[in-house]
Structure formats: structure tokens, C-alpha cells
Amino acid sequence: MNKKLKLGILVFIVGFIGILSTLTMDIVLPEEIQQKVSELFTPLQFKLLSLINPTGLLLITVVLGVLLYDKVNLKLPLFEKLTYGKKEIELSGILKYGIIGGVIAGILITLVSVMFLPMLPSDFIALGDKFKPTLVMRFFYGGLTEEILIRFGVMTLIIWLIFKLFGKLNSVVYWLGILVSAIIFGLGHLPVVFTFVDAPNAELIVYIIFGNAIGGIVFGWLYWKKGLEAAMVAHIFAHIIMLAGENMFNI
């Protein structure tokens, strides 16, 4: 089997495990949509149908990532070890930087949440009470799948495009990829907000974009410097810190 194909299959399987973890959470929909959906599908059928879009996105981003990541000197040390049997990897370094990065990201995201909480609309606060991802979903979809989608797919593509456009591969190019992909991740949360919040204010929009982008910057830096697996570890540990912050500050 072609080694890149083998790598892609391995990354896809890990990402798909994260997608399957979404089955552990009830899907929240506006009441009028929920009523129509319940007339057509059972809850399980609708959950299974909801897997189609993220699976398609995962497939696209895995293909892009596998084709482009090594062309811009990005790394997947553990995945490459499993696929190519390359030289020994520094697993302790991946874990160390991942944990430190995750703690930093989690603290920053929690502080932003505390700062913005008094300015957020009440219907958004109520939505947060309904939309509570399970631990399994936080760790597997957030920690694994989102890193494959945003870092391995989107960030890699942006860096490659800038590299092809300007013919240079320096720290500016990587930072542009990190920042743009982090902002895209933040923007990707806005459709849900506009669906459930009648009149989102400017503070809410800034909070959604900025709050999500902070973690993306930390995870993107780790992907660049230490590999995708370090970003995954950091994303998981960020959720652990955020959970502690939610209980501590009641957010």
C-alpha cells in the first residue's frame, strides 16, 4: 500500500473516532426545526445523518493535509512513525509541550470567558446550559478531529498557498497560517450563534471569534514546532482546564 495512502487512512480513522463521539451528545435544534425533524426521523437516525457533513469535511482535509504537509515542513511524528517506521520520536517532548500548551490555552480561554460573561446576551447564556458537550466529545472530537480539520487541513493548506504565492517559507508564512486558520475556526462557530440567538451583540461576536482563536494560535504553534500530536494533546488538556474553570467560575 502507498505510504501516503496508509498515513491518510490512519489519520482519517483517528478523526472519525472523534466524529463518532458526537453520538454521545443530544443534538440541540430550534423548536420549529426540532418538530419537523422528529416527524421524519428518530433521534438515532438524525444523529447518524448528522455524521455525514463532518465525515465529508474530514475526508477533504485529510487528503489536503497528506498531500501538502511535508511540502511545507510540517510534521506528524507519531503518525509517521506508525506509518513509515521512521527513527525514534521524542514522545516525552510531545507530551510535555502539549500539556504546557494546553494549560496555557485553557487558562487564557477561561479568562476570556470570565471577562466577556457580563456582556453576553441572556439567550446565549441559556444556550450554553443546553449545549453541554460530553467529556468524550470534548476530548475526542475537540482534541482529535478539530485538530485534523483545522490544523492538518486548513492551516497546512493556507501555509502551502502562501508559500506558492510568494516562494518563501519563513516564520511570517507560518504565523499567517496559524492566525488565519485560528480566525476561520472562530468564524465557523458563528452560524450556530446566529441560529439560536435572536440579536447577537458585537461583544458576543468578538467573544466567539476571539475566544476560539486563542486556543487555535497555541495549537497552531505546537503543530508548527512540535507536530500535530502535540497540538492534539494541548487541545485535550485545554478542555480539562476549561472544565475546571467552568466549575470554579460558574460559566
| pLDDT averaged residue by residue | 93
Bin the helical content.
Answer: over 70%
**Low-confidence runs (pLDDT<50, min 5 residues)?**
none
Distance between the termini: 49 Å
Number of helices: 12
Described by the principal axes of the CA atoms, the overall outline is: globular
- The H/E string reads HHHHHHHHHHHH
Largest sheet: none
The total strand number stands at: 0
Label the structural class.
mainly alpha
Molecular structure report:
- The chain is mainly alpha-helical.
- The protein contains 12 helices and no strands.
- α6 packs antiparallel against α11.
- It is globular, with a radius of gyration of 19 Å.
Question: Brief description of this entry?
Answer:
With 251 residues, the protein is mainly α. It has helices spanning 3-20, 31-40, 43-49, 52-68, 77-84, 91-116, 122-130, 135-166, 171-187, 190-196, 202-226, 228-249. Helix 1 (3-20) crosses helix 5 (77-84) and helix 8 crosses helix 12.
Offer a few descriptive terms.
251 residues; mainly alpha; globular
Question: What layout of secondary structure does this protein have?
Answer:
Elements: H1 3-20, H2 31-40, H3 43-49, H4 52-68, H5 77-84, H6 91-116, H7 122-130, H8 135-166, H9 171-187, H10 190-196, H11 202-226, H12 228-249
Helix pairs in contact: 1-4, 1-5, 1-8, 4-8, 6-11, 6-12, 8-9, 8-11, 8-12, 9-11, 11-12
